[in-house]
Amino acid sequence: MNRTHAVLLHRHVFGFVSKSPIIAWGFRAPVRCVSSQVSGADTVKRTLESFGGMENDVLDESDMRPIDDLIITDHKWLLSSTIRKLCQRFQNECDEDKKREILAKYTRLVSLHTTAEESVLYPKLEILAASGTPLDVVHLKEGHEKVREGLARAEEMIDVEHKGTRKSSVMEVLTKVMKELDAHMTTEERSDLVKLRSEVDEATRTTLGTEFRIAKAVG
Protein backbone atom coordinates (compact mmCIF):
# COMPACT_ATOMS: atom_id res chain seq x y z
CA MET A 1 0.00 0.00 0.00
CA ASN A 2 1.62 3.25 -1.09
CA ARG A 3 0.60 6.87 -0.43
CA THR A 4 -1.39 7.20 -3.66
CA HIS A 5 -3.42 4.05 -2.97
CA ALA A 6 -4.18 5.17 0.58
CA VAL A 7 -5.38 8.58 -0.59
CA LEU A 8 -7.60 6.94 -3.19
CA LEU A 9 -8.98 4.56 -0.57
CA HIS A 10 -10.02 7.34 1.77
CA ARG A 11 -11.38 9.47 -1.06
CA HIS A 12 -13.49 6.47 -2.11
CA VAL A 13 -14.82 5.78 1.39
CA PHE A 14 -15.05 9.25 2.90
CA GLY A 15 -15.57 11.34 -0.22
CA PHE A 16 -12.48 13.55 -0.06
CA VAL A 17 -9.13 14.10 1.64
CA SER A 18 -8.29 17.16 3.70
CA LYS A 19 -6.30 18.34 6.75
CA SER A 20 -8.72 17.04 9.39
CA PRO A 21 -7.10 15.72 12.60
CA ILE A 22 -8.54 12.28 11.90
CA ILE A 23 -5.58 10.31 10.52
CA ALA A 24 -5.55 7.07 8.57
CA TRP A 25 -2.31 5.20 7.97
CA GLY A 26 -1.35 2.71 5.32
CA PHE A 27 2.30 3.68 5.20
CA ARG A 28 4.83 5.60 7.26
CA ALA A 29 3.57 9.11 6.51
CA PRO A 30 -0.03 9.85 7.59
CA VAL A 31 -2.82 10.79 5.22
CA ARG A 32 -5.27 13.14 6.88
CA CYS A 33 -8.89 12.73 5.96
CA VAL A 34 -12.32 13.91 7.00
CA SER A 35 -14.54 11.22 8.45
CA SER A 36 -18.09 11.39 7.12
CA GLN A 37 -21.04 9.04 7.15
CA VAL A 38 -20.07 5.81 5.40
CA SER A 39 -22.79 4.55 3.08
CA GLY A 40 -23.28 1.17 4.70
CA ALA A 41 -21.44 -2.12 4.98
CA ASP A 42 -21.52 -2.84 1.24
CA THR A 43 -19.45 0.24 0.40
CA VAL A 44 -16.88 -0.62 3.06
CA LYS A 45 -16.76 -4.24 1.93
CA ARG A 46 -16.18 -3.29 -1.72
CA THR A 47 -13.49 -0.82 -0.70
CA LEU A 48 -11.62 -3.32 1.45
CA GLU A 49 -11.89 -6.02 -1.21
CA SER A 50 -10.43 -3.66 -3.81
CA PHE A 51 -7.37 -3.25 -1.59
CA GLY A 52 -6.87 -6.91 -0.85
CA GLY A 53 -9.38 -7.46 1.94
CA MET A 54 -8.39 -8.17 5.52
CA GLU A 55 -6.14 -11.20 5.32
CA ASN A 56 -5.39 -12.95 8.61
CA ASP A 57 -7.86 -10.77 10.49
CA VAL A 58 -10.71 -11.65 12.83
CA LEU A 59 -12.63 -8.47 11.92
CA ASP A 60 -15.05 -9.05 9.07
CA GLU A 61 -15.46 -6.24 6.55
CA SER A 62 -19.23 -6.18 7.12
CA ASP A 63 -18.86 -5.83 10.90
CA MET A 64 -20.24 -2.37 11.65
CA ARG A 65 -19.79 -2.39 15.42
CA PRO A 66 -18.37 0.55 17.40
CA ILE A 67 -14.59 0.85 17.66
CA ASP A 68 -14.51 -0.16 21.33
CA ASP A 69 -16.22 -3.49 20.57
CA LEU A 70 -13.96 -4.12 17.57
CA ILE A 71 -10.79 -3.44 19.54
CA ILE A 72 -11.82 -5.79 22.35
CA THR A 73 -12.54 -8.50 19.77
CA ASP A 74 -9.17 -7.85 18.15
CA HIS A 75 -7.43 -8.04 21.53
CA LYS A 76 -8.93 -11.44 22.32
CA TRP A 77 -8.07 -12.78 18.88
CA LEU A 78 -4.52 -11.44 18.91
CA LEU A 79 -3.45 -12.42 22.40
CA SER A 80 -5.64 -15.37 23.31
CA SER A 81 -5.23 -17.38 20.15
CA THR A 82 -3.15 -16.08 17.27
CA ILE A 83 -0.03 -14.76 19.01
CA ARG A 84 0.12 -17.58 21.54
CA LYS A 85 -0.07 -20.10 18.70
CA LEU A 86 2.66 -18.29 16.78
CA CYS A 87 4.87 -18.30 19.88
CA GLN A 88 4.32 -22.03 20.28
CA ARG A 89 5.18 -22.62 16.64
CA PHE A 90 8.27 -20.47 17.01
CA GLN A 91 9.41 -22.41 20.07
CA ASN A 92 8.96 -25.77 18.32
CA GLU A 93 10.56 -24.73 15.02
CA CYS A 94 14.23 -25.57 14.37
CA ASP A 95 14.64 -24.10 10.88
CA GLU A 96 15.99 -20.55 11.16
CA ASP A 97 14.27 -19.28 8.01
CA LYS A 98 10.89 -20.58 9.17
CA LYS A 99 11.44 -19.04 12.59
CA ARG A 100 12.05 -15.70 10.89
CA GLU A 101 8.82 -16.12 8.91
CA ILE A 102 6.86 -16.85 12.08
CA LEU A 103 8.34 -13.85 13.86
CA ALA A 104 7.65 -11.64 10.83
CA LYS A 105 3.98 -12.68 10.91
CA TYR A 106 3.84 -12.06 14.66
CA THR A 107 5.32 -8.59 14.17
CA ARG A 108 3.02 -7.83 11.25
CA LEU A 109 -0.16 -8.69 13.16
CA VAL A 110 0.87 -6.62 16.17
CA SER A 111 1.88 -3.73 13.92
CA LEU A 112 -1.46 -3.69 12.09
CA HIS A 113 -3.34 -3.47 15.37
CA THR A 114 -1.14 -0.88 17.06
CA THR A 115 -0.89 1.34 13.98
CA ALA A 116 -4.67 1.30 13.53
CA GLU A 117 -5.14 2.27 17.18
CA GLU A 118 -2.62 5.10 16.90
CA SER A 119 -4.20 6.47 13.73
CA VAL A 120 -7.87 6.22 14.72
CA LEU A 121 -8.42 5.59 18.44
CA TYR A 122 -5.65 7.63 20.03
CA PRO A 123 -6.40 10.93 18.23
CA LYS A 124 -9.96 10.69 19.56
CA LEU A 125 -8.70 9.94 23.07
CA GLU A 126 -6.36 12.94 22.83
CA ILE A 127 -9.33 15.17 21.98
CA LEU A 128 -11.20 13.83 25.00
CA ALA A 129 -8.15 14.33 27.22
CA ALA A 130 -7.83 17.93 26.05
CA SER A 131 -11.44 18.53 27.07
CA GLY A 132 -10.85 17.23 30.58
CA THR A 133 -11.41 13.46 30.43
CA PRO A 134 -8.71 11.73 32.54
CA LEU A 135 -6.82 9.81 29.86
CA ASP A 136 -3.09 9.16 29.53
CA VAL A 137 -2.54 8.69 25.80
CA VAL A 138 1.21 9.17 26.17
CA HIS A 139 1.32 6.08 28.38
CA LEU A 140 -0.63 4.11 25.78
CA LYS A 141 1.82 5.11 23.06
CA GLU A 142 4.74 4.17 25.30
CA GLY A 143 3.18 0.73 25.72
CA HIS A 144 3.16 0.26 21.96
CA GLU A 145 6.76 1.43 21.73
CA LYS A 146 7.87 -1.13 24.32
CA VAL A 147 6.25 -3.89 22.30
CA ARG A 148 7.91 -2.69 19.08
CA GLU A 149 11.29 -2.55 20.78
CA GLY A 150 10.84 -6.08 22.11
CA LEU A 151 9.95 -7.46 18.70
CA ALA A 152 12.88 -5.64 17.08
CA ARG A 153 15.19 -7.12 19.69
CA ALA A 154 13.83 -10.61 19.02
CA GLU A 155 14.50 -10.20 15.30
CA GLU A 156 18.08 -9.16 16.00
CA MET A 157 18.62 -12.08 18.37
CA ILE A 158 17.59 -14.68 15.80
CA ASP A 159 20.53 -13.63 13.66
CA VAL A 160 23.05 -14.25 16.44
CA GLU A 161 21.62 -17.45 17.93
CA HIS A 162 24.09 -19.58 16.04
CA LYS A 163 26.94 -17.50 17.48
CA GLY A 164 26.28 -18.58 21.03
CA THR A 165 23.04 -16.93 22.11
CA ARG A 166 20.95 -19.31 24.19
CA LYS A 167 18.17 -20.88 22.16
CA SER A 168 15.60 -19.93 24.78
CA SER A 169 16.55 -16.24 24.83
CA VAL A 170 14.40 -15.16 21.88
CA MET A 171 11.46 -17.02 23.37
CA GLU A 172 12.03 -15.20 26.65
CA VAL A 173 11.82 -11.87 24.82
CA LEU A 174 8.61 -12.92 23.04
CA THR A 175 7.10 -14.06 26.34
CA LYS A 176 7.89 -10.64 27.82
CA VAL A 177 6.30 -8.97 24.79
CA MET A 178 3.14 -11.04 25.33
CA LYS A 179 2.99 -9.96 28.97
CA GLU A 180 3.41 -6.30 27.98
CA LEU A 181 0.68 -6.66 25.36
CA ASP A 182 -1.61 -8.29 27.90
CA ALA A 183 -1.10 -5.48 30.43
CA HIS A 184 -1.52 -2.80 27.76
CA MET A 185 -4.71 -4.33 26.36
CA THR A 186 -6.16 -4.78 29.84
CA THR A 187 -5.59 -1.09 30.61
CA GLU A 188 -7.26 -0.05 27.36
CA GLU A 189 -10.28 -2.26 27.95
CA ARG A 190 -10.83 -1.47 31.63
CA SER A 191 -10.11 2.24 31.49
CA ASP A 192 -9.66 3.99 28.14
CA LEU A 193 -12.38 2.23 26.16
CA VAL A 194 -14.79 2.56 29.09
CA LYS A 195 -14.23 6.34 29.12
CA LEU A 196 -14.58 6.48 25.34
CA ARG A 197 -17.89 4.67 25.58
CA SER A 198 -19.19 7.05 28.22
CA GLU A 199 -18.12 10.22 26.41
CA VAL A 200 -18.75 9.43 22.73
CA ASP A 201 -22.09 8.48 21.16
CA GLU A 202 -22.54 5.13 19.45
CA ALA A 203 -22.87 6.58 15.94
CA THR A 204 -19.49 8.29 16.21
CA ARG A 205 -17.90 5.19 17.71
CA THR A 206 -19.31 3.11 14.86
CA THR A 207 -17.79 5.49 12.31
CA LEU A 208 -14.48 5.20 14.16
CA GLY A 209 -14.91 1.43 14.00
CA THR A 210 -15.12 1.61 10.22
CA GLU A 211 -11.97 3.74 10.11
CA PHE A 212 -10.21 1.27 12.41
CA ARG A 213 -11.02 -1.70 10.16
CA ILE A 214 -9.88 0.21 7.07
CA ALA A 215 -6.66 1.27 8.78
CA LYS A 216 -5.92 -2.38 9.55
CA ALA A 217 -6.78 -3.47 6.02
CA VAL A 218 -4.42 -1.01 4.34
CA GLY A 219 -1.65 -1.18 6.92
From TrEMBL:
InterPro entries named in the record: Hemerythrin-like
Domain Hemerythrin-like: 82-190
The protein's name in its UniProt record: Hemerythrin-like domain-containing protein
Provenance organism: Gonapodya prolifera (strain JEL478)
